[in-house]
Amino acid sequence: MKKKxxxxxxxxxxxxxxxxxxxxxxxxxxxxxxxxTSYGKRSWLAGCDVSHAFYCFPCLLFQSPGTxxxxxxxxxxxxxxxxxxxxxxxxxxxLALRGHDESETSxxxxxxxxxxxxxxxxxxxxxxxxxxxxxxxxxxxLDCMLSVVREHIIQEARSSDFLSIQPDETTDxxxxxQLVLVLRYxxxxxxxxxxxxxxxxxHSTTADSIATALKERLAVILPEDQKRKLISQAxxxxxxxxxxxxxxxxKMQDVYPNAHYIHCYEHQLNLxxxxxxxxxxxxxxxxxxxxGTSTAVPSIQCLSTERTSSAVFKLYETQVTLTLLPSExxxxxxxxxRIRILSFFLQLFHNIMPHVDLLYAKLQxxxxxxxxxxxxxxxFQQDIQKIRNSLHSLVDxxxxxxxxxxxxxxxxxxxxxxxxAEVCDTVLRHTLERFxxxxxxxxxxxxxxxxxxxYKMVFPEDALSRTLKAYPVLDGSKLKTxxxxxxxxxxxxxxxxxxxxxxxxxxxxxxxxxSETVTLLKILVTTPMTTAEAERCxxxxxxxxxxxxxxxxxxxxxxxxMLSMKKRLLTEMTDFNQKVIEKCASQKxxxxxxxxx
Length: 597
What we know:
alpha+beta, Nucleotidyltransferase, domain 5, 5-stranded mixed sheet, 3-stranded antiparallel sheet, 12% strand, globular
């Protein structure tokens, strides 16, 4: 052992060996030789100039009689230990519960068979009665799991003070219209939760069909005496959803009068960028890369309406040679000026899109609230205004190194600056119009930390009266007293957003002292400003219900989607396994009762 320790301290011997091997491939013979650089790439490699061979250094130190060296020929399955092979079986697939081949020799039997084999290797490996691999047993277990998770979510929703919904619809691979229902509420630990509840199949996408499906599910979640808890409903802005007379939101408000309508702010920001790019002329230009390939440049209209600006960044930062498309060479506008126009607008949107991406990223957070969003939108407006004020220097920079062609007044730097100003003005104007924070959203202005000094001098009576009108559950006089005290305290101004202030009250046991303010904060936090979680559910739907699994039943789809999207919830439920076992055992008689007389 001492010799082995000494050898380990010295490290592997790495002599320069000239080893050559004759090989052939597809009828062509060649000679392979060893390179000394292999020592640096493989730290375990050791050589011997006596035997003129290579060895694995750990194997030389720790090999015992009867074991095989790693250099000997053996299969991959033999080289992997038992624990690693179990890990591969468990994580071979993410969502495909059943495999195409579930036999014992299958390399990809599916998640369910893999878990059964894993448990069997620990407990009843030699069982001859229960195998648990039938489709019926799988579906029963999935139904029990889904039922347990739903009961937990319903219990959390009923115990919360307020509830919001985020419905959205899409079409799956089997051309079946699916309506997703996402619930948003504050749990017992004062954390905001957005829970996927169900995929609901629809026979039609009319307002009546969608509203009826939502009312049926909400009747299960909220009892008759808790209808006041539903305070908001967020949609993507489709006409069938937002209609004020016959839309889904109107039909829902007839039953749930406190359910105020929210138009998803992400969709509205996308519409703002579409309006901004409508002022830019189309310039059919392609770019030629270093390898000679030529690709058409997408129009600025397409690049800017994407929710990410990767296309703008890639085209701007990549060093390419722009050339005129062959179909457009007969037009009077010179090629160099077409390229210069495109470069100018690429520079403009290269400055704008980072701020758009930053606002998108903030809107997609689960714990975002209306107070935080209002501050982010104001910062976005300030950033766009700075770009608007610096357009003159941007135009001067783009016009350097070239002269204006004759009889081409439309290409003057003044025209460039005018179009760029229209783009910025459109973004600013539509931002004010689409994000006004009026009506029921005006309550966000009561919690703006940057206005506390102003509110300390002049209390916002108008905003308070509108908030009380939108939410009658609040006590106006007590809320005014509590807010007046909050405006005077410096420690409350440091809280960023309504959620931080709510958690501050809860951690310091101040919910009874500021009872009305806590209620207002819960309303602010529970109100969803986007439908990002519903969009994420659609991504999971596409991964689960694929072309090869398009005949999946609705119950199985909901169960797999719930297990996939709420993995953290399952780990937090310490009694999840026990509840599933009890529910599965109580569903029906699984063993005959023999009575002897």
